[in-house]
Design goal:
about 170 residues
Length: about 170
């Protein structure tokens, strides 16, 4: 099961790269079209949607490799048992926080879908599909955060001792 989530995280982060290429092409096309006085409607908004998906789809892989920002200076100075307790506590807090965020974004996506929320303008763009993709990204982020917590409880130690080496 762990391998499935690792492969999924890898796929989602690879997909983020392709989305970034797509977003750059959208912006280049928009700039070229504007320079010949034929602007493409909704391109700026669409690129923001793509960026949101890139951010949320990349969270799990970043967590898998423990590449999120962390401050270990104080934790590393603590004695062994206290250090382990603090590390476990911080991972528990992370699981709680990501779970809460997943719940809030899920509720928001559902409400957005029920209201058929969209951005008005010359081109109507629906917001709810992007919000559901954010939920997918947060789901995998939560699974990875729980996996990291389980590894810390099983192995103990600091962040560096629990980092997956490639």
């Amino acid at each position: 099961m762990k391998l499935f989530f690792q492969k999924t995280n890898q796929f989602l982060s690879g997909f983020c790269g392709w989305l970034m290429i797509g977003m750059m092409l959208l912006l280049v096309a928009d700039i070229i079209a504007r320079s010949i006085n034929k602007p493409l409607q909704g391109m700026a908004e669409l690129s923001v949607f793509v960026m949101m998906i890139v951010i949320y789809f990349g969270l799990a892989r970043c967590e898998q490799h423990r590449e999120h920002v962390g401050l270990d200076l104080v934790v590393n100075a603590l004695p062994g048992r206290i250090k382990r307790a603090v590390v476990v506590l911080t991972h528990l807090m992370a699981v709680f926080t990501v779970g809460l965020l997943l719940y809030a974004v899920s509720q928001n996506a559902l409400t957005s879908f029920q209201k058929n929320e969209s951005i008005g303008g010359t081109t109507e763009l629906h917001i709810w599909p992007v919000k559901f993709l954010m939920v997918v990204g947060l789901f995998f982020f939560l699974i990875q955060t729980i996996t990291n917590l389980a590894e810390v409880i099983k192995k103990g130690g600091s962040r560096e001792e629990n980092v997956h080496h490639r």
